[in-house]
Amino acid sequence: MVSSKNRRSSSKEIEEYVNVYAAVCLLLLVSGLPPMSSAAPVSKNASDWENPCDYTGEVTSVIPYNASLAEEIANQAKRTLENTASYKNSFAYHTHSFEIYDSLLERWETDLWFRNLSWFEPELLPASHVAAPGTTHAPHHNRTAAQVIEELLSSDERLDAVLPRLYRGLQFVVASFDKMTRGAEFTDQQLETNITVTYHDIKFMLCNFFELIRARNLIDKIPPLDLSELPKFEDRLRDMLLVFRDSLDYVSYLGRLFERVHQKHSQEAKS
Question: What is the pTM of this model?
Answer without folding.
Answer: 0.82
